[in-house]
Design a protein that fits this description.
Distance between the termini: 52 Å
Order of helices and strands: HEEHHEHHHEEHEEEEEEEEEEHEEHHE
Shape: globular
Helix content: 25-40%
Structural class: alpha+beta
Low-confidence stretches: 1-20
Largest sheet: 9 strands, mixed
Radius of gyration: 22 Å
Length: about 350
């Protein structure tokens, strides 16, 4: 049967049978794409399951509610968010927090410890100082005295998280910013929602953080995503990677930066020095079952750089792909776990250097 005729046949059958068919019952061509704006970015959910118009509408309404719940909990741009209330709470006093916020704080503390402080959600004040945060500040290099003062305040030991009692507290006057992990958590939440609704085949893209389940068509073809080339002037994929039941988060320095006196300052701040990174790594992609973990680890890899980052990726068994600037272009470096994931054949095709 010609696929283009199928919707017409369905409508005619409904009219003849008087079965109460409506626009909501109209089957949609697969895949179905749901998209919109959230967190100052975008969401795009592609579903390969068979859906009707009504089912797609209900799914989108539900996933938007999930995203709005995350925003209400973890946004630093909303004065009424749960996170902002935590940031304004008296020092040393335990604050009861939602299970979701506790979970994200716990992940953050775990990655901070494992990375030797390369990931640190308490550095919101430093990010603001460098004009990359929620404060409206001119983009300029801060004076060293102010920088050192803020650097002295931060650190994973400045907050304490009690996962059992679902509470946390700030021990020093730090500004907790979950920008390096909250979007990944939101991506996980959308995936969990789709799972509970019985969706078996999907690709969630939340501002570049992605998670997949199942396949993109009935032939068992995996979802495929592009790893963006580190180019300032255009968007272009440098690698196409097949994904199946896994997520990926990428952190890069080629979109958000400023220049002063001919020097480039990346938005990725090293919590250990208080200054923007200066090494050759242009982007870090981490592949992990959880996008929250992938998100946090991608930021840590950007801070650590190629040598420290890949050494730690090997120790942790992380699937990591780094794009590293070299001469006028870049090279692709991978952890052994990532090379194993994509296969030796694809590793060779991608020109990966495994370390």
């Amino acid at each position: 049967m010609n696929l283009k005729l199928r919707p017409v046949v369905v409508v005619l059958l409904c009219l003849v049978a008087f079965a109460g068919c409506s626009e909501s019952d109209r089957p949609l061509s697969s895949p179905v794409r749901l998209e919109g704006s959230i967190f100052g970015s975008f969401y795009q959910v592609t579903i390969a399951d068979s859906l009707t118009q009504g089912q797609a509408r209900d799914l989108e309404q539900g996933l938007v509610e999930v995203l709005e719940q995350v925003d209400a909990s973890m946004s630093i741009y909303r004065d009424d968010s749960e996170l902002m209330a935590f940031n304004q709470a008296p020092l040393g006093e335990w604050q009861p927090l939602s299970n979701e916020l506790i979970e994200v704080l716990a992940i953050s503390q775990s990655v901070a410890e494992a990375s030797g402080g390369a990931f640190d959600v308490t550095m919101g004040g430093l990010v603001n100082l460098w004009s990359f945060g929620s404060e409206a500040r001119p983009r300029e290099v801060p004076d060293d005295e102010t920088l050192q003062a803020r650097l002295a305040e931060i650190g994973p030991d400045s907050i304490e998280v009690d996962e059992t009692a679902l509470q946390a507290r700030r021990l020093r006057d730090v500004f907790v910013d979950l920008g390096g992990v909250a979007k990944g958590h939101a991506t996980d939440r959308v995936a969990a929602y789709l799972n509970t609704e019985g969706v078996e085949h999907y690709l969630v893209n939340l501002g570049g953080d992605l998670i997949t389940r199942g396949y993109r068509d009935g032939d068992g073809e995996p979802w495929r995503i592009g790893i963006e080339a580190p180019l300032d002037d255009r968007q272009e994929a440098t690698h196409i990677v097949p994904l199946h039941d896994i997520s990926v988060a990428t952190s890069g320095d080629y979109r958000n930066y400023f220049e002063e006196s001919g020097q480039r300052f990346s938005h990725t701040i090293d919590p250990r020095t208080g200054r923007p990174i200066e090494h050759r790594v242009a982007s870090a992609s981490v592949f992990h079952p959880s996008n929250a973990w992938a998100d946090a680890w991608a930021t840590a890899m950007m801070v650590l750089g190629e040598e420290e980052g890949l050494a730690l990726a090997g120790e942790q068994g992380l699937k990591v792909l780094l794009l590293v600037r070299e001469d006028e272009g870049w090279i692709s470096l991978a952890s052994p776990a990532f090379a194993d994931y994509v296969s030796a054949e694809l590793s060779d095709e991608m020109g990966l250097e495994v370390r």
